[in-house]
Amino acid sequence: MTTSPALAAVSAAPDPATRPEIIRYENVGKAFGALQAVTDINLTVHEGEFITLVGPSGCGKSTLLNMAAGIFAPTSGAVSYRGEKVSAFNRKVGYMTQSDHLLHWRTVAGNIAVPLEIAGLSKKQIRDRIEDLLDLVGLKGFGDNYPNELSGGMRKRCALARLLAYDPETLLFDEPFAALDAQLRLKMQVEVRRIATQLKKSILFVTHDLDEAVALADRCAIFTSRPGTIREVLDIPLPPDRDLFHLRHNRDYVDLTARLWDEMAPAISAEEH
Ligand SMILES: Nc1ncnc2c1ncn2[C@@H]1O[C@H](COP(=O)(O)OP(=O)(O)OP(=O)(O)O)[C@@H](O)[C@H]1O
Prior knowledge:
Strand content: 15-25%
Family: Belongs to the ABC transporter superfamily.
Mean pLDDT: 89
Keywords: ATP-binding, Nucleotide-binding, Plasmid, Transport
Largest sheet: 6 strands, mixed
Bound molecules: adenosine-5'-triphosphate
Pfam families: ABC_tran
Organism: Salipiger abyssi
Low-confidence stretches: 1-12
Domain ABC transporter: 23-246
């Protein structure tokens, strides 16, 4: 019997749950004054795992990322990183949001250099690292351009290169591609999965796009509305080397997105806007 390449890839992929833990949320709650943002969150991210977070607006998805980054602490429960309580500004994680925050007075290379300069690398080390990063994100030859000379997708690639510059082992993405058109978004999704797999990053990725949530993930955590808690974690048994351009023909993908839409429909229709 011959095994299809896709099935071979699935069976060859080690079960993420057997890999070491990176981030653990244990009975986590976070209140901002009288407002209970999240409650009773339990979730473990393993090495090399790609987890997407979906849920109604304001249910606390970004709050979860912020606690992993050490931007603020939980008000109950515990957030740990490789077994240690997350302290202020967790330097093991890199954070990318919808806004790319590129410095308009610096070139692409100059923007990517920022974390490397802060880390105190020599000029030669910085130059070499920038060349590697430009290559990695598909921006070779654009190092001397300024952000206002770049397309939306190129700006995202530049922000991604800067994010990867100091080699954080975990990447936190908060709706990074929400403002891109559908085709560009697909291209960036392909890049993120390729880079995550190539560099073996662990990823927490917040999105409102349910198709994206399935296409990218190994697991998808579904939140309730505020105070947000994780209602269900959906396993996404698509191959690690999945072809995002052709997922629409994949039966598992179609079934999983339909299921996610069904799960989310009541919460989405109840939203005020
Ligand atoms: N620093 C803060 N100070 C006060 N309230 C906050 C703070 N951060 C978040 N909140 C509140 O906590 C709740 C959860 O916010 P959060 O941004 O985590 O939700 P979200 O699920 O990411 O929302 P969205 O999908 O709309 O981006 C919201 O009501 C928000 O107003």
